[in-house]
Design goal:
CATH architecture of the largest domain: 3-Layer(aba) Sandwich
Number of domains: 3
Distance between the termini: 25 Å
Number of helices: 18
Helix content: 25-40%
Mean pLDDT: 90
Low-confidence stretches: 1-25
Oligomer: single chain
Largest sheet: 7 strands, mixed
CATH superfamily of the largest domain: von Willebrand factor, type A domain
Length: 526
């Protein structure tokens, strides 16, 4: 099943690799094209867009982005002149930004998909659930009783995760209108119990599906209905897809033209939108992607339950939305334990590499005005493990809630003291990282971030590490290595490490992104 699942998500994962930190240089507007900033899950729309090109002559150039990052680009004006349109799963968060209102020419929903819960058959039988009767409260009760575990994407970086967070907060607070701070406060104790059952987190739906396939101890996934049904069709995952009875948050995928787009692009956008909402395209969309059609008279694909569900209210203000995200990051979710295995060999003195590493790590300590997701989280255990011929030091700090300054200052000081010297003992250092994580709190999201600018030249080799990893307790094998391709590092070597451990490779080589960008993106997976 894992091999099939990897094939299913290969396209989506590849597309999420082309994100805000590795975008190609802005292209000038070209007649007959539409430059679109889009949610990465829309990779599955490529066949439909090829048909649209034949029918309308419009070529769509997609650049992938997280929903909240795209909202920031539009609101700040960074999207002006670079993109002609945005195509996100939802504009709900964007509409909370007053400065973004004048940036949007028009928005037209193209299809829809609600947040849903995909549950393994054995878990469903164990719980005795009837899918049509399940509520978010029932899910919370199962999780708090230790009878259900699940995975979901990071709400700060993925709209499926944000929609899931809003759905659960609305369901557990009993909100009858737009979520308020009082609703979130009311639901906070139960939300914390709910998120204690989250065993997988991710910055993208593609990697979440891959990680789910690799692990056997996760009962369910919270994601868009369309993603879960596509997994069932293509990878035979056998998930029962449940839309909780007390309501859901739905993505409507509005194709939204920007006021800064040239007249020709706006005309191309209108032609594309008209085609996509036509009966032929709507039939193709629902058949290929399991999203629900918006055109009257088009029948949803088989497997899409026609029973109505209440649309849960979205936060009514940006302060409530951002407050909910901040609560999730720093209070509600399980804490993080991260070991940064840092190559500080002699070659890091070349081309200013050690300076770039210091800058990237220092940015993760944030500033007094850092927004949610822009610095190490409260309760997070951060370990720096610099290495050369061998591990040089193991430096650990915990970010204390309400008083993060001392730990963040200590990390900055440790980073400032890093010096390039010695060879490159990649595998021995990774083994030390796993040994360190084995000594601490197991009730946390654990991960290892490996940054190296060269090949392994000292310490143990790949075969020894493979044997070491194979002998780890099963729970420790769930700790992924996220490796950063940098300088002269060996792609094949790092790919082997990430595939073995269930992690992912991030490219920060010249022309493919930045080191600070790669480190920031990894935050969604920790």
């Amino acid at each position: 099943m894992i091999g099939a699942l990897l094939a299913v998500v290969a396209l989506a994962t590849a597309c999420t690799n082309t994100d805000k930190h590795s975008d190609p240089k802005p292209t000038a507007y070209k007649e007959g094209t539409l430059r679109v900033l889009a949610s990465s899950e829309l990779a599955d729309m490529q066949p439909v867009l090829e048909q649209a090109k034949k029918a309308t002559g419009v070529t769509v150039n997609l650049t992938w982005s997280g929903t909240l990052d795209a909202a920031e680009q539009v609101a700040s004006g960074k999207a002006d002149g670079k993109y002609d349109a945005i195509w996100l799963s939802s504009n709900d968060y964007l509409r909370l930004r007053p400065e973004a209102v004048g940036k949007l020419a028009n928005e037209t929903p193209v299809m829809s998909s609600p947040v849903a819960l995909g549950v393994k058959s054995e878990a469903l039988a164990r719980l005795g659930w009837k899918p049509e009767d399940v509520t978010w409260s029932a899910v919370h009760q199962a999780v708090s009783a230790g009878k259900l575990t699940y995975g979901m994407t990071d709400p700060v970086r993925s709209n499926s995760g944000f929609s899931a967070l809003v759905s659960v907060a609305s369901g557990l607070s009993g909100a009858q209108a737009a979520l308020t701070d009082a609703d979130v406060k009311t639901a906070a104790p139960r939300l914390k119990e709910f998120f204690a059952g989250q065993k997988l987190t991710s910055g993208s739906s593609g990697w979440l599906a891959t990680a789910y396939g690799k692990r056997g101890d996760v009962d369910a996934l919270v994601n868009y209905e369309s993603v879960l049904l596509s997994m069932n069709r293509d990878a035979k995952t056998g998930l029962t897809v449940i839309r909780p009875k007390d309501g859901v948050v739905t993505a409507h995928y509005p194709l939204t033209l920007l006021t800064s787009a040239p007249a020709g692009a706006r005309e191309s956008g209108r032609a594309l939108t008209e085609y996509l909402r036509g009966a032929e395209a709507q039939k193709a969309i629902t058949a290929q992607t399991f999203r629900r059609p918006v055109a009257a008279g088009v029948t949803p694909a088989a497997g899409l339950d026609a029973e109505k569900r209440r649309e849960l209210p979205f936060p009514g203000s940006r302060s409530v939305a951002d407050g909910l995200l901040a609560s999730y990051e720093n209070e509600l979710r399980r804490p993080s334990r991260t070991v940064y295995v840092l190559d500080t060999s002699g070659s890091m003195a070349d081309e200013g590499r050690i300076g770039r590493l210091k800058t990237a790590l220092t940015e993760l300590t944030g500033t007094g005005s850092s927004g949610t997701g822009e610095r190490f989280r409260d309760r997070e255990e951060v370990t720096l493990l610099p290495f050369g011929d061998k591990v040089k030091q193991v430096l650990t700090h915990v970010v204390e809630p309400g008083n993060p300054g001392p730990a963040l200052d200590a990390v900055r000081g440790d980073v400032k003291s890093l010096e390039p010297e010695g060879g490159t003992a990649i595998y021995s250092s990774l083994e030390a990282a796993y040994q360190h994580l084995g000594q601490g709190n197991a009730d946390a999201f654990t991960s290892i971030v490996l940054m190296t600018d060269g090949q392994n030249t000292a310490g143990s080799g790949a075969k020894h590490f493979d044997s070491f990893y194979a002998a780890l307790p099963e729970a420790q094998k769930h700790t992924p290595v996220f490796a950063v391709l940098f300088g002269d590092s060996d792609r094949k070597e790092l790919t082997h490490i990430t595939e073995l451990t269930g992690g992912r490779l991030f490219d920060a080589t010249d022309g493919n992104g930045s080191l600070d960008g790669a480190f920031e993106e990894i935050r969604g997976y920790q």
